[in-house]
Amino acid sequence: xxxxxxxxxxxxxxxxxxxxxxxxxxxxxxxxxxxxxxxxxxxxxxxxxxxxxxxxxxxxxxxxxxxxxxxxxxxxxxxxxxxxxxxxxxxxxxxxxxxxxxxxxxxxxxxxxxxxxxxxxxxxxxxxxxxxxxxxxxxxxx
Length: 142
Description:
The protein is mostly helical. Helices cover 59% and strands 0% of the residues. Helix 2 crosses helix 3 (39-51), helix 4 packs parallel to helix 6 and helix 5 crosses helix 6 (119-137).
C-alpha cells in the first residue's frame, strides 16, 4: 500500500476534518497537498499521524519500512536471530514482548511498539540483539 493511501486511511480513522487535515499537512511539510510532496515529506506526515494515535494495521501484508535506520536494524537483527535459531518465535508479537522488557519491564499497562521507539530506547535492544546474533553465528544458539 502506498503512502498516499495510508495517509488517507489515517485521516479517516482519526476523523480529521478537511481543514484540520490540510493544516496538519502545511504544519508538517509546508505543502497543502500530498501530490506536491516527496516521499520524505509523506513519511513525516505519517509519523505525525502516528503521533496523533493512528496505528498501521496489517492483514498479512508487510508493514511499511521505518524511515529510522535504528528501527530497521532492530527488525533485521530480530529476523537474523530467528533464522540462526537463537530466537524461537520470530513474530512481531514476540519482538514487542522482547522490547517491552527493556522499555517498560513490569508495567503490564504499557504496550511497546518497536517502530515507535526513540533512539535511546532502541540502543540497549540493539546491543542485546547483536550479542544474541553473535552467539548464534558462533554456534552457541539455545
